[in-house]
Specification:
Oligomer: single chain
Helix content: 55-70%
Number of helices: 4
Number of strands: 2
Largest sheet: 2 strands, antiparallel
Strand order of the largest sheet: 1-2
Structural class: mainly alpha
Amino acid sequence: MNKKNNKSSFQKIVDQYLVQHRSIFDVLTKYQESNARVNRAIAKASTQCGCIKIKSEKQTCPPDVKLNEISKYMNSQVEGSLCDNCKEIIETEMGSNLFYTAAICNILDLNLDDVTKKEKERIATLGIYNLS
């Protein structure tokens, strides 16, 4: 069965509106740029707006802690919460990033729903070891 027929509605819309940048190289560089814009928007929320504070420090946990309890001792290192303006900007930038993710899937004939389903299964199977 052709995967193109099984695209999610999001992938179909991306395919419809991705007119100018159809080359894999164009999409890859736009994807990378959108990634940088997400990072920049988060940094600006901290450095320019100040609605969040990023408190970076070494994270530690007791040496005898069980592996499945490590998350109790770790934190996001983000204090505060996004203001409405920063939240909107970050959501917009993340949406753009998802757009280019879907575009890459379209070009490579991958189904984004299948990709996320497989990752969900991988996470469920590997648990805390999935990002090692």
